[in-house]
Queue: 4 jobs
Job 1
Amino acid sequence: MPAPLPENELARLAALESYGVPDATPSPGLDRVTRLVSQLLDVPIAIVSLVEEHRQRFASVVGLDVTGTSREDAFCAYTILSDEPMVVRDATADPRLRDNPLVLEEPHIRFYAGAPLITPDHHRIGSLCAIDRRPREPSSDQLEILRALAGLVMTELELQRSRHQLQEERAALELASRIANVGHVRIDMKGRVTWSEHARGMLGFDEGARTIASLFSALPERDVRWLSLCVDRVFEIGAPFYGEVTLQAELPSDVRTLLFEGAAERASAEDAAEAAVVAIIDVTENRRLRAQVERADRLATLGTLTAGVAHEINNPLTYIQGNLEMLVEDLEEIAGASPSPRLATMLEMLEEVRDGTQRVRRIVQGLRTLGRAATQKIEIVPLREVIESARRVCAAELKRAANFAIHCDEPGPLVRADQSQLVQVMTNLLVNACQAIDPSSVDTSEILVTCGVSANDEAFVEVRDTGRGMSPETQARAFDPFFTTKEVGVGTGLGLSICHGIITAHGGSITLDSTEGHGTAIRFALPRYTGPSIFGPPDRRRAPKVATPRSILCVDDDEPVLRALGRLLTGHDVHLERDAATALERIEGGASFDVILVDLMMPRMSGSAFYERVASLSPELAKRIVVLTGGAFDEESRAFEASMAGRVVSKPVSRATLFELIETVAGEKGA
């Protein structure tokens, strides 16, 4: 018949589970106890039995080739009902056990003596039992021995649990050390060293390295002297220390920076130092990430600066270009009526000035590209323009580095992309090509940029240099983040990985081909845009004659720009205002206009604020607002530009473009 359950069965099972004794795992400590039981009590069978919910499991057994039985058949299930040893002199005479399979069949148990295994919080989790195949009468000394050895079993189980908990804590500590990249070293008074697994890995030691000499062997000589002095001071006066160690490597990208922070280990606050404990923190990646953040901050600052510079250049460029247009038209009319060599020369001079303003305009566009926000602005982009923008940014470095050439027709293949990001890619590739050139071979070195359409109808750009080239190992890691072969502090190792991310985000690919000593070619390819082209030569169209005069309000804080707009819009009914608030008062007073041209960046009231006020007064009039922009400084202004898609014009603007825009906006009003 099965034994009844103890009153505290659930708590007892939880206590047993807390010891975490594994199945079928030898335990030398428990095996010694069962052998002692067999010898001292002169029995053939001795068992450490743990009584689980549905079975009894043998943690150690002598004399049987089994690992447990069902709980229903377990003699030990009765033993755990009392604190005292259970003795069965002849199982065949015991009503509880005489029909038990373990009595009727192998191992034919007759004698059984079991002492309960009692935990410190008084849970009986199993028993230590002595078993014989013949009836017996144990002496009181034998039962006392069995009870004492049961206590020894519990001591061993407590030790096993402590060791297991210690292993778990150590594993957790090692995991935390790996996550935080922190290891620790302990140096005792005799120079013996013990270290965490992660510290060994950081310093490249095997488990057998146990002396302070092995620690010092991993460090540069200057750091050995410093660390030795610091450890001596820990033992002399208990002084803590903190310092930085640089571990050199063959490749600059593998150089690591470690922080060593040490303190004294004492038995109590008053005792002398027993050991020096040193925390080792690998800050290599943190330094690289910090450098990346600092670089991003510098780029953000540069973006704000370039946007401001672009705005300040575009305003005077607007009235220079506007006045040039009017001068050229007037002189052409005069020359037509009264041709003369002098007028022809003057027209040539003005054309050269106009070409110069176009060149300045393209440079400013490049500055605005650098200043754009990180969010993508997808548009149709001619690759030749991307190359030229990057060339202008890198002009000084290219001139110092090599002979430079571009093989690409105007406007080059077209792609749908964020132009600022493509310029960033192109700039990175040109800078890398320049840095790959040996300064002593500038006159004979070349950097060639080619763009075109590949055999599989993709648009591509290739940057080829005759620099030092790359080894196969370097090529394999070239696109990895933070990988660099440059000197420490020169590069972040992010350039090519950023390029790869940008190109793949646009649905393209980037490849590298290099031979050590013979140069490198990097090519990126993008899906080609095959729609209608909107690019051509500089806009030299004449504005059409004004068929229908329009009422136009121009709002710009720069007076020369206003005057130039007034001249460009000759033939229309033009109203000029330098202050957005004053212009708003006119609208609030009932004035209405066919078209309103408003500058984006103005003091007191910006173009976006002006638009919002007009929209609240007259949504219909707000639809006739066109934004003139020389460059947006901040995210709010950029977002406003994006929301005004189709009604944003970048300064400087030609007269023909203005007239077309006015007719479009005024025509929408009529519709």
Job 2
Amino acid sequence: MQFVYPSFLYALGLLAIPILIHLFNFRRYKRVVFSDIRFLQELTEQNKKQQRLKEWLILLARVLAISFLVFAFAQPYIPGKIKNSGNRNYQVSIYVDNSFSMQAAGKEGALLDQAKTKARKLVDAFGANDEFQLITNDFEGKHQRLVNQKEFLQMLDEVSISPTHRNLSEINQRQKSLWEKNKSATQKTYFISDFQENMEPNSWEKDSLHAYYLVPLAASQQQNVWIDSAWLEEPFLKKGNQNKLKVKLRNGGENSFENQALVLKIDGIQKVLQNFSCNAGESKVLEMNFSLSDYQWHGISLSITDYPIVFDDSYFLAVQAKEFVSILTINDAEVSPAIKKVYGLDSIYALKEQSIKQLNYSLFGSSNAIILFEPNAISTGLAEQLNQYLSSGGVVLLVPNMNPTDLASIQIFLNPAGINLGSVQKQELKVSRIELKDDLFQKVFSKMPETANLPSVYQSWQISSSLGSARKLIGLNNDLPFLVRAKLGKGFIYVLSSSLKKEASNFSNHALFVPFMLNFPIVHQKANQASFVLGKESGFSFEPKESQNVLTLKGNNQEHLLEVKIKEGEGYAKLNDQIKEAGIYSLGSNQTEWAKIAFNYPRNESVQGFLDTDKLKEKIGAEVLNTDLTTLKSNLEKDLKGDTYWKMALLFALLFLLAEIALIRFLK
């Protein structure tokens, strides 16, 4: 314990006065004459004991009354947690959570409005000379400085809901970068938030020099239904066809969502409306069909109606119908009529034929797949071009010649993939196994019938894998593969063990031939990404139309210039945190639209899960403040000045003075 005015303690010397009065009792005794004192002897001895006790009690009351009166003037106190001299002030950092979850309603309105009210109360509790920092999830540059009360309140009024999410570690690092520049004042940090689970700090070093306080807010009811995600079932959309769109909805609230509408709009025009219900705590995947009438880019918006959290009630996609899938055949002679017939079944496939002796290598880049049809040999130049094509993500199918003139050159081409042709086996075999779980056949068969009539093979190469990287997709009854696939670079190479000629197999006449030939060119194709997530993606990819370094992104009454990079036929643009609002944007240059790009808000704020503030305060070394902040000002004074006891000392002085009066008056 310490004293504000320790010099007053010298006044304790006044305690000698009542003690001297007691020791040298100056009161005069009156002489009373009695005729006989024999009967008073016993009474006199008893009165002397009582009188002595009374005098000692009175002395004690006087000594204590004077002592506590002196203490009251000396003002005793226990120093506060924060050491602060008179010429130093507070520096206060206040984090106001403005993430999407703060749209939820509490007892006093929207949580963000409550957070702003709490921040104002915090500022009012401090003095005019104190300095303040406002922090939100946006990490704006203007907030990275200390301001006075008036400026702080002006900036606070401008805070609005933001799609950006931060965890407590990121926020603390932002605050520390300012504190390191200003170490001359007492520093306090306040976090005002609903403390979603995704705010959990991934790392935290406790700092005894800083005071941390949590101001938790809570919604009156946990209720939110949202569109979690949406995706296209097929990699390519077809003009005029019914294209399938899958939509995942989630109900994270406490009540069921009954008979509500999911609306699909294309370019702002409503095309599909589908009612759905979703029980509390469950998710549901709906299927919606839509068609496109041309090959232009279109914006799709999905929406539901749910309050009060509305940021996740919409979902955006940018789509374009695929004009054609280009298939290039390279052959020594005429390509099989079966191949021409298959690709004539669907107008989306465009088949081009090239003689192996008169190749135009420039066609490789625009081809979705290349079929090497029964080559007698593969030249070094062709092998090099095919390897480049595969490395950049191309797909190649080798239909082998059963009697090639230069087997060695074909084997050299297959060596990087680890595929060995071996020797030709002239024996009738049957297909016995198909890898139904592979993407190539997953949508063709749900279950293989036990009595299925599978293709027959009369001549086949005994294929093996030297690297173990080739996967057997179709197997023969001698346990050797009929179809293998290997990854080479970013691309894939398929190899059949038999040709399509009648004397080699009946595969070209079998029902399995059609889905295989239609699927292998597209199953590995990377379709244009229908949407990107704001805050998560630092950029987005697109299909370029020409070489450009800068493109324009337009949408939501905004226009942004973006730096782009184009490599190996794929474009990439950096957002540089320019896009803040979800929606459909137009990408292009010189008034020409290259593509539409869809951005959606992240859904990590949709799930209504909250941190345990008691555990959180232990983890980061913080205190939890009551939500009305009524004791804030007194706590600030206590932290700065400590616990003062002069009022208590004065009260005790009065109590002992009253005790003295009572002893003198009532104790006989």
Job 3
Amino acid sequence: MQKAALAAFCIFAAPQRYHFVRRLLEEMTDVTPRAFRRIAVIAFGALALTHCAQNPVTGDKDFVLMSEQQEIQLGAQAHQDVLKEYAALDNPALQAYVNEVGQRLAKQSHRPHLQWHFTVVDSPDVNAFALPGGYVYITRGIMAYLNSEAELAGVVGHEIGHVTARHGVRQQSAPTAVGLGAVLGSILVPGMNNQAGASLLQTLAQAWTSGYGREHELESDRLGAEYLARTGYNPQAMIEVIGVLKNQELFSAQQARRDGRQPRTYHGTFDTHPSNDKRLRQVVGEANKYTVADPREGRSDYLQKMAGVNFGDSPDQGVIRNNALLHEKLGLAIQFPAGWRVQNRPDRVVAMSPKGDALVELQQGPKHDRPLETLQKGVKLDVGARYDSGNLSGYPAAFAAGAQQGKPVVVAAVVFNGTQYLIAGLAKDKASYERERSTLRAAINSFRAISPAERQAARPHVLQLITAQPGMTVAALARQSPLGADAESQLRLMNDLYPSGEPHPGQLLKIVQ
């Protein structure tokens, strides 16, 4: 019924749709309250001018808010915002490899005419996402857990499916969330040249972080499997990669329960259906009609490309060790509260409390040596805030306490090695602040110069390859790993041996050094 009505509505040209809507509004005059009619005029007027475009995949008419050219322009503009949140990985060989795989898949898609862009972003998060108009991103973090080119193609093909079916554009009318990478919020946005809260990413962040819903995710699985088969991969690689990611999700959930926090999940594929889901297998199975005589797996090629890639945090952003940020390049360290979830982004670090009602944020400020001026002019606090000057770990600093839009805030600006660093603590309400007051202040006061021992601990973890020898066990490898208590589980995950598999002699394995 909805589909038929939409098709009928989209038959009209824009002026006809406008007059059609006007007639509907005139009929509402006698039965609709004036206030509601005013809202309806605005809403229906927008609908009358809405673009009805053909879906590139189904051929049906889509009720969308932009043309393809507008979609491409949106993607190009938002691409710049993405790169502010997630820096592109400085690894030309790996970038070229992912781009080559992506371009081959895109040529077999329903929108081969788009200018496709494939970017590996320097993030430890296990994620991949796409922008309207042909922009696809895959994190360094998710690539650590894949084990073949076919699995890489499965992830990339799924994201291509979101673009070809215009899921992002069709999502435009859905409720929006905060920007990508700013999911935890930001205290220091006003006056600090941080555009995360105002970028175009806000309009699509909900879909990128939590998926497009079961039907759209299944459609992307079906499309991705088709593109895999058309490109010479086994379409069942889509099932395999979902299994890999599902194991990662299960491990993340176990960690979260242990730490009393919310688990991190990949945005779509497995949070809407498990790998043994009947409908998933059905839609992927539809690609079997495309004969693949000698499907490419590319296991060895993929693993060789991953050798030397950082695992976990990037040294360019500093590393997190036991919830402490150790930044060797900047020469600083700060201890975030134990049990809080820490997100390390190119432009800031944010730690969120387990209950999600308090956070600590660190970011760079101005390069002058007037911290009190920075707080008074740059951080917009409610009327009545208190300001003071002093020292923090022996460095010139200024402090402020008050509220931001009614939420209790404490902020420090400290001059360190010629640059100011702003550290802020925020609570949802007075009760949360009273409970976390000492924790927030302890985190701020922990800012310091990095010690020689911390410099050693700040060395990045790097993926390396070894060949399994007879009798080699994951437990034995874990005892030599720098990954600590989770080493055995992590090594199993990254080598598709989770939860209890063991390597066979001659198997190429990823380890962390």
Job 4
Amino acid sequence: MLRRFYEFIIRHSKLIIAVFLLLTALGLLMKQLIQVNYDINDYLPDDAPSTQAITTMENEFSEGIPNARVLIKDVSIPKALEYKEQLSRIDGVENVTWLDDSVDITVPLKMSDQRTVENYYKDNNALFSLTVEEEKDVEVVEEIRNLVGEENAVSGGIVNMADARTKTLSEVSIIVVAAVVFVFLILLISTNSWIEPLVVLAGLGIAIAINSGTDLIFGEVSFVTNAAGNVLQLAVSLDYSVFLIHRFEEELKKEKNPKKAMVNALTKSTSSIASSGLTTVIGFLAMVMMRFKIGPDLGLSLAKGVAISLITTFIFMPAFILAMHKLMQKTRHRSFVPSFKKFGKTVSRITVPLCAAFIIILLPAFLASHANSYYYGSSKLFTEESRIGRDAKITEDIFGQNDTYALLVKSGDRSKEKALSDELHELPEVTNILSYVDNVGNTIPNSYLDEKTYQKLNSDNYSRMVLSVDVPYEGEEAFSLVKKIREIGEKYYPGEYRLAGNGVSTYDLKETVTSDMVKVNILSIGAIFIVLAISLKSLLVPIILILAIESAIFINLAIPYFSGEVIFYIAYLIISSVQLGATVDYAILSTDRYKENRLTLDRRKAIAKTVSDVTSSILVSGSVLTIVGFLMGIVSSNQLLSQLGTLIGRGGLLSLLVVIFILPGLLYLFDKIIIKGEKNEKNA
């Protein structure tokens, strides 16, 4: 059945090529229609309290929470009011809040509450809180910066998003181009034809273009998927086409007819390529079970990408390789890859001692990998050396790391609102509250207010209190305050209040992603174990393979702990699934070759020959994943993407080293059980 299918593919090779070229063109066109979301908080679960609060506020109020801060240095109050007017006229700025919204500035400021005054005006520096439409973030931030000049500062969540949007697009292009150049050079060295690297890259490019276009089914993708998806698909799918070409060349030595040789190559290689791809797909699909939606976003795109790469390998590549066959033959050259025979013998002598040393460091690595310090939100996306980092630091140095929360309570009882506000004022972290009962009074009828002022603070169902809080966007201090405010809200309005804000969303993000970790790890390990157990017909071998790669993951995640680096929990969460799914193939290849070599050799010689046989292939695949990851780490100004790239690059390198130096020792030590299982399988 499979053979007939491949014969059909070969007979209609021109049609196949035409169809895939058409799909590629469509993919490139559809990719332009996909929106990229740069707001981490949008990926919280729908049932997260902060998500529900934001939804309620969007339904009830026309304005959102302030998401930008503008600092004007050395300015008088009249001049500050002029700036406020100019900022409010910018298209996309929904609201500008300043000192005059909280106190009467027609009387001497010394007579007003100094804590409130210093939230907005301090040492002749004015700080404005702005609410900016997300859809116009780039244009608005650029216009604000033009208005206030380089000497002043613009910061906040919307500014982070705008900078991420503008910088990531150009940085992704640099990463992709550099990755393609590197892959081309690696293939040039590791293959036997000058044209073969171009053939492999063409197939990969088509698969990536089709996958990118089909992401349109999601409507939008996260900035993580947009930045990492294509290069990760390139890195993990590289082997499929290379393996098929090498099998085709082997079959040509037995069958002179290229078409028949290709059918033979496809028939013999389908099982190994498909099983390799399946473990990778399953590793990525495990991320779909995350409640934090960036996991499903990246996981589905990568799993779909690997599946499309497999389809491209089995359908497009045979037709394309045959079309390029004569040119590939004419441009053949000697292999530049050195022999690894001596290296294999060396590894066979030291692998057991290395394995023993490795086991000793495994427990500390495991414990350290689970003891890191984390960033959960987007407050540290950019370094202090960047424009946005510099502006944020200038603002924080003068006014502190203030955040803004919005507390919505059921309307109708002004006396209860006043009691709630009074208790919130007792919290030392709450520096100001903008609300009806604070700024108008609970005894003044609603009809005395103009419509615009009333709608800022009230809707048909809710009253809104805007809290200025003297805490950073995230950290234990902020998280503790969120819990306190929620407890007070629950006390006065049980089940009927809503709390939103940057720090609130980050708190919920922390609660969500930490609960995802164990679940996703168990699912990814369990699913890959089942696939390996079925394909290898063994229970012990999958345990050895997964243990080897998981050990590399532990070491990868232990390094930040020992170096004192704070890591983004999102990167920490994603890397476990990505590294396992992307590199378990190395271990499968080594184990398969070892079992094959043990049919004719003793275990020491089998180890030496296995290392000699697989090192070249593993180095090619592992080096691509490593370089692609480190490229992302170096090029990305977004610290989350940079850190994720570094973890991927380092993880690829560690998995490569574990498979080459440590796994052979494990195979050697468990040889009797592995080979006994093989014999039992054959006898059955």
